[in-house]
Write a structure and sequence with these properties.
Length: 95
């Protein structure tokens, strides 16, 4: 199944951080990627994420608008908008 791609806009990219806004229509995905830095995600909208993970597993995660979470470098996944509404979040990578 081919999904539409999420869109991204780099807001800051300097020697200390990279800040990127991601926007997803329902069903859109980031594509498989591995995070090369520790990072923080802040949800702009309510985000109903479907996370595809290595080994063929997947899990649904809901992140409420205005909340944030942190992950360490090395996370590998494909993020999909599993909801019926557009979703957006801002990612801050710590270089």
């Amino acid at each position: 199944m081919t999904r539409p791609a999420a869109t991204s806009e780099t807001l800051i990219d300097d020697d200390r951080v990279r800040v990127t806004r991601f926007d997803f229509e329902p069903g859109a995905e980031t594509g498989w990627h591995r995070h090369g830095f520790d990072y923080v995600i802040t949800a702009v909208t309510d985000c109903q994420m479907l996370l595809e993970e290595p080994g063929g597993t997947s899990r649904a995660v809901t992140v409420a608008a205005g909340t944030a979470y942190r992950r360490s470098e090395g996370v590998e996944h494909n993020v999909i908008n599993g909801g019926d509404n557009p979703m957006s979040f801002v990612e801050v990578e710590l270089k």
